[in-house]
Amino acid sequence: MAELAERTSVIVPAFNEAHSVATLVESLQRQARWLEIIVVDDGSTDGTGDAAAGAGARVLRHPYNKGNGAAVKTGLRSAAGAYILIVDADGQHQPHDTVRLVSQLDRYELVVGARSADSQASWSRRIGNHWLNRTASYLTGHPIPDLTSGFRAAHRECMLEFIHLFPNGFSTPTTSTMSFIRAGYSVRFEPIVAAQRLGTSKIRLGSDGARFVLILLKVTTIFSPLRLFVPVSGALFALGAAYAAWTIATQSHVTNSSVLLILSSIVILLIGLVSEQIASLRSEGRRS
After folding, report:
1. pTM for this prediction
2. Domain containing 29: what range?
């Protein structure tokens, strides 16, 4: 573990977290001898960067607020370690869990701190996360207990491979998790208990929830499009065939609607096959 920690850059994206960031940095320093602790001050107006620097962190500053994902990307590009550990600055992630995550990087390319259900904020957030997890599990073909957890350790080189896919907002955990799984990397979900966050959450269930679903579909079509196109095609074909059978039985002919549904299913399947070939060619171009 000590060797892994000494090769790990800790990245802390922070926006207006002056009330908690210094305590977090000091707690992280007590856990292990990290290569460096990088706090990315994402355009804060409350002295977050100064508080982090005073606690001994290396501070990178954005001139204005760009988003959590943009802060993570800044940290990734500047990190010197072979491994990276991403920790939120709001006090939810327990510093003593960092050792458990990093210690498994010799066997996994990505280790995600999977929060227990009772530590995931409000009931509405739990329900939203539950359905996101189920959707992501289906689309990737891999069980995902916590898709949106920002607490994660990974090989920096692997993270950089997908950095162009990461959005600037709050969907970076979603995108990175699905990208690693669909690319065939080894991913582990390590159970953790998250603490109550300090301050107010910057994620909005309605708008950000819809954005998370779009991210799921985007990443799936990039890495495994048939997981999306085949069910849609099959549903349209089944609907068209059933309607055709009903009109033949009741009206002795096939309607244009039935034909349109069946043709649409064929077109969607063909688009999926072409997309699958493009995805395969893209995968062949990944780093060896």
Report:
1. 0.79
2. 2-223
